[in-house]
From TrEMBL:
GO MF annotation terms: hydrolase activity
Family annotation (Gene3D superfamilies): Ribonuclease Z/Hydroxyacylglutathione hydrolase-like (3.60.15.10)
Recorded superkingdom: Bacteria
Name of the protein this chain belongs to: MBL fold metallo-hydrolase
Pfam families: Lactamase_B
Limits of the Metallo-beta-lactamase domain: 16-205
Keywords on record: Hydrolase
CDD domains named among the record's database cross-references: metallo-hydrolase-like_MBL-fold
Keyword Secreted: no
Length: 303
């Protein structure tokens, strides 16, 4: 984990899950908190070694790898915690994440793990998109849904802390089917990212780039390619395809092998997100047949 300066006030901890830091006088704000106590211990040690204050925390979205270290931080320091609406509900009641992934059923014990559920935290300021001044920090919160319901990227001192609104090329290659909740919203958010004027961006996973538009374009191309494949796949299934088979076939096509329920649930959501995006675009149709949720080509609908 490398503590990297970006300009006079902005830094980031370059790690598996990046953590931003902004220093204004006697105040210091972390952007995201890493996955657990041990990550936060390292962050606090580094800030202390550099004699930098820690007074505020901003959480981009309520995924455990971005807020899991926040409980420990709140225990050790008097922190003002800021998060977007909706995401803040999950931060305060983290069981909601395994609950929604498990389609609303009470999660099985194995789903209560640190990758899907952090410890609950207190949120002091719940915000929406737009300009905000909170104590010594003036920033713009950009609403970028599609990966998480109300994800907010923070633009401050001309640096964009983007959360998971886009992924590094390496992440795209690693996951093959990136985790999203709605492909249509994801693409809208990526286009919005291209219009943000700033000196560079820190993604949740990957490295800071001055010119991050190329990486955003690669994200767009990746999602379009997956959607293109899915339309062809559904078009070729003349009798329609069940949701379950679509998840299995798409994972097989992209060489994704899930041996654990928890990782399969994430991929099920991602595959469904592409189908949802195509329904919204009017490219495929969905229907019920003998209590099975199915998808078909738009042309194969009866008149
Ligand atoms: Zn995330």
């Amino acid at each position: 984990m490398k503590f990297t300066p970006l300009n006079e006030t902005c830094y980031y901890f370059d790690a598996v899950v990046n953590i931003g830091y902004v220093h204004h006088g006697d105040q210091g704000m972390l952007i995201d908190a890493g996955i657990d106590d041990s990550i936060m211990r390292k962050v606090l040690k580094e800030l202390k070694a550099n004699e930098l204050p820690i007074t505020h925390l901003f959480i981009t979205h309520a995924h455990a790898d971005h807020y899991g270290g926040a409980h420990f931080l709140q225990k050790k320091h008097d922190i003002t915690t800021i998060a977007g609406k909706f995401e803040s509900a999950i931060l305060q009641h983290p069981t909601i994440e395994p609950l929604y992934l498990f389609q609303g059923n009470d999660p099985l014990p194995e789903l209560h793990n640190k990758f899907l559920e952090g410890k609950p935290i207190q949120v002091d300021r719940v915000i929406g998109e737009g300009e905000h001044t909170i104590d010594g920090f003036t920033f713009t919160a950009h609403l970028l849904p599609g990966h998480s319901y109300h994800q907010l990227a923070m633009q401050i001192d001309n640096i964009l802390f983007a959360g998971d609104s886009y992924f590094s090329e390496a992440q795209l290659e690693k996951h093959k089917i990136p985790y999203i909740t709605d492909a249509d919203l994801t693409l809208e958010s990526l286009l919005r990212l291209l219009s943000i004027d700033c000196d560079g961006a820190v993604p949740g996973h990957g490295t800071f780039e001055k010119d991050f538009n190329q990486t955003v374009e690669k994200n767009i191309a990746c999602h379009e390619e997956i959607m293109g494949w899915l339309v062809k796949y559904i078009t070729n299934a003349k009798a329609g395809v069940t949701h379950e088979t679509m998840v299995s076939d798409m994972c097989a096509h992209f060489a994704v092998e899930n041996s654990m329920l928890s990782s399969w649930l994430l991929y099920r959501t991602a595959v469904t997100a592409y189908a949802v995006g195509l329904i919204k675009r009017g490219k495929i149709d969905h229907y019920m047949e003998r209590n099975i949720w199915k998808f078909r080509n738009i042309q194969s609908q009866p008149n």
